Amino acid sequence: MEEKDFEEMRNQFAILKEQLNNQEIISDRLIRETMKIKNKAISEAKQTSYVCAAISLTFYPLNRLVHAWSDGFTIVTCALILLCAVAAYYIHKPVDELNFMRDDFSKVAKVMASFKKHYNDSVYYLAPVVVIPYFVWACYEFAWSRSPGGKSPWFYVGLLLAGGVVGGIIAYHYHSKAVNAAQDIIDEIEKD
């Protein structure tokens, strides 16, 4: 009788152990699937910069047709947008190399923390150093150097400022989405 009870207890223990192991796998898999989904927001920011870079390649030929601004300004504009795309590539490269379904959680958390730091640094420190002088040059090009007669140059500065604010809001939206996704991935790993 005792042997039979002991054998039954052993079978129940094996069943419980199997259920527990299956639950851990499901939990691990859910976390990894969630990380993959959140990575899409990070990829959107990179893809947007690539689209902007592709569009910037048309600036020079179009400007040769309409002569809206100087060739130097056009070349610098294209170069800055292409530089942003190259920077996005290198900042996103470690994230792209991750395999969310197989890589260790500590590696994923480390890569995400590094991505978040570099991405924030590029926006908060590098962008103002580049954007402010570029905006001043744009004001000169559009408002004073080539403004049509009869309109105040300050009208064109206002248009540039409005365009810059709209562009900045769109860029910050993608930036925030990517950084928040990276933080969500880190939080998900730390929660487990």
Please describe what this structure looks like.
The chain has 192 residues and is an all-alpha fold. It is 88% helix and 0% strand. The protein contains five helices and no strands. The protein has helices at 2-56, 59-66, 71-96, 105-145, 153-191. Helix 2 (59-66) packs antiparallel against helix 3, helix 3 (71-96) packs antiparallel against helix 4 and helix 4 (105-145) packs antiparallel against helix 5. The protein starts with a helix and ends with a helix. The model has no long low-confidence stretch (mean pLDDT 86).
Percent of residues in beta strands: under 5%
Which residue ranges are poorly predicted, with pLDDT under 50 across at least 5 consecutive positions?
Answer: none
| Number of separate helices | 5
Radius of gyration: 26 Å
SS content category: mainly alpha
- What is the average of the pLDDT values? 86
Instruction: Give the ordered list of helices and strands.
Output: HHHHH
Short description:
The protein has helices at 2-56, 59-66, 71-96, 105-145, 153-191. With 192 residues, the chain is mainly alpha-helical.
What's the arrangement of secondary structure elements?
Layout: H1 2-56, H2 59-66, H3 71-96, H4 105-145, H5 153-191
Helix pairs in contact: 1-3, 1-5, 2-3, 3-4, 4-5
